[in-house]
Fold:
Amino acid sequence: MHPTIGKINWVYFREGIDNFHQSLTGLITLLKNNPDYVEKHTRFLVKALEWERNQKQTRYLLTGEEKQQAEAWLKIRFQDEQAPCSPTDLHCEYITESIKNSNNLMTQVFLSYADEDRTMMEKIRCSLRRETITVWTNTTDIQTGEAFLSAISRGIKACDNFLFILSPRSVNSPYCKDEVEYATSLNKRFVTLLHRQVDTNDLHPELAKMQWIDFNGNERDFNCFTGS
Structure:
């Protein structure tokens, strides 16, 4: 059985066991439950897929009241009942990119990391987007034809928080060091996430004085917040 089917509540229509009319009433009740949430799931997904098919061009992003509706929808959580459906990663990317576009490309988080730690970066990025937090990364935010270093500088200047993923690779990366130096020169707020144990002697002074959020050794247990 597919895991998606296995984890939801079923409507029983077993022949010779369940009352058909009672089961049908239960099915109709279920289909009418949370109709607005489910309709928005479909509507925003269709728009997100259109955006993706068109190379994620800005003109396909949400604006105005529709963007506000999407942001509010993404923040909904089902605490005491089973969620009728869950946002996809594409939903989260599309809505947060729409938010970012409406804010003149300013972002809440710039993610600095070594390329070897990309898997963890993507998990962090995915989970932050699920919380409607806008994120800048070098894999998604460098415009076609834009010089790499200019794009990095632009991303750091336009971010509220500089989030550094600590690992032996990142603390010894000249590119990451340059990013830290530039963020320091702008007095950006640093947030430091420990992904792999590091030698503190290798740390940039700005990173050494920060308290770390410890994700060391937890990568297998860390999933994007795509549930309720």
Remarks:
- The chain has a mean pLDDT of 90.
- The CA atoms of residues 111 and 137 lie 6 Å apart.
